[in-house]
Design a protein that fits this description.
The protein is built from 11 helices and 18 strands. By secondary structure, it is an alpha/beta fold. Helix 4 packs parallel to helix 6. Bound molecules: adenosine-5'-triphosphate and 1-O-pyrophosphono-5-O-phosphono-alpha-D-ribofuranose (PRP).
């Protein structure tokens, strides 16, 4: 049987301070080699799951690889999937969101500009002689967003903004030019651009460049996606991989807590835990000669409240551990 081919992201989605995909695989129980952040190889091995063959992919190119069947599944930000899908239907399917690598794609301008919105920007630039320049890594989403903007429609109607990707130029409205950037997009404002469209996470890059957000185009986070070749047993396998990864993500929100109460208080303590939803289905009770050990999986943010609550049952030997995997 052919192995399922998995694309793993290079860049921010495998950066210890941003979206540590490597750590996610480790936490999910995969013995993964060649994908350590900052030291990735092009071929990555998952030693304890030989049904998977993994390659490094650049998120920008991942949708193309999924659409052409070069990889069967991949982890990538939704922003790149949408950028690829603007002008055509594709066969990429989202297996599920992984809730990290969260960014927003935004339109930004210099913080000294007077504009209140993109509509305001287009209205106030109606009569200018020079073209409006916008740099971005996401020219398709930018063009779509501009064409849906009230101000753009008022000034330019249905005329399609010009898009330039290196030597390739498309579109008719050369008064609004959207130019492809390969990174460090914020800097284009200092070099003479009017607008940029870029993703932001903490906002520090925008601040450093003296820019402010005008509006949000979309929210993005990392997800597992399948491509044109992912059918039958590969799709089943893909779903199992997603569950295993998502189990590790879910587990990060939980503690595994054990404590002792005297046997005659065990039932009351258990009822208290169920009533307050301080457990998954129900607490597990291990009865000893004098004491019962009670075990619950509890959401981290509920732990302090639970600790207060179990005081009344004279809880002792309270042990709290992190959870590595929780498939609900
Ligand atoms: N600061 C960030 N924090 C978390 N995720 C981010 C951040 N910046 C970008 N991302 C997400 O990571 C994915 C890849 O981003 P991007 O295309 O900017 O490449 P990159 O991570 O900078 O790597 P490269 O060096 O290959 O360009 C996108 O889906 C994006 O939303
Ligand atoms: O809001 P922040 O926390 O500052 O993060 C956002 C920045 O991170 C990414 O850039 P990256 O540093 O990967 O460099 P790049 O622009 O060259 O892609 C992204 O393109 C933004 O510029």
């Amino acid at each position: 049987m052919d192995k399922i081919i998995l694309g793993l992201p290079k860049g921010s989605l495998n950066n210890v301070n941003r979206g540590n995909t490597y750590q996610l695989f480790v936490d999910a129980g995969y013995d993964i080699k060649g994908y350590e952040p900052g030291n990735e190889s092009y071929e990555i091995s998952i030693v304890n799951d030989l049904e998977i063959k993994a390659f490094l992919t650049r998120p920008q190119s991942t949708p193309v690889e999924l659409n052409r069947g070069m990889v069967d599944i991949a982890i990538v930000g939704e922003d790149w999937i949408r950028e690829e899908s603007v002008n055509s239907d594709n066969s990429i399917m989202k297996l599920g969101d992984l809730n990290y690598g969260e960014t927003r794609l935004i339109v930004a301008i210099p913080n000294t500009d007077p504009y209140k919105s993109l509509t305001d920007f287009f209205r106030k630039n109606k009569s200018r002689k020079t073209p409006i320049l916008c740099f971005t890594e996401y020219p398709n989403l930018t063009r779509q967003h501009f064409m849906e903007n009230e101000g753009y429609k008022e000034v330019f109607g249905d005329s399609v903004p010009l898009v330039q990707v290196r030597g390739l130029i498309d579109g008719e409205n050369d008064q609004v030019q959207i130019i492809n950037s390969d990174g460090a997009t914020e800097v284009y404002i200092a070099k003479g651009a009017d607008l940029i469209v870029d993703n932001t996470q903490t906002g520090s890059s925008l601040k450093k460049a003296g820019l402010v957000e005008l509006e949000t185009i979309m929210h993005s986070s990392a997800g597992l996606y399948s491509g044109v070749n992912c059918h039958g047993y590969k799709l089943d396998k893909a779903k199992r991989i997603f569950d295993q990864l998502f189990g590790a993500i879910t587990a990060r929100k939980y503690f595994d807590v054990k404590f002792n109460v005297e046997n005659d208080l065990a039932e009351l303590a258990s009822e208290f835990l169920v009533e307050n939803k301080f457990c998954s289905d129900e607490p597990t009770i291990n009865k000893g000669s004098k004491f019962s050990q009670i075990n619950v999986l509890i959401e981290k943010n509920k732990f302090p409240e639970m600790l207060n609550g179990i005081n009344r049952f004279n809880a002792s030997a309270i042990v709290r551990s992190n959870v590595k995997q929780y498939i609900k």
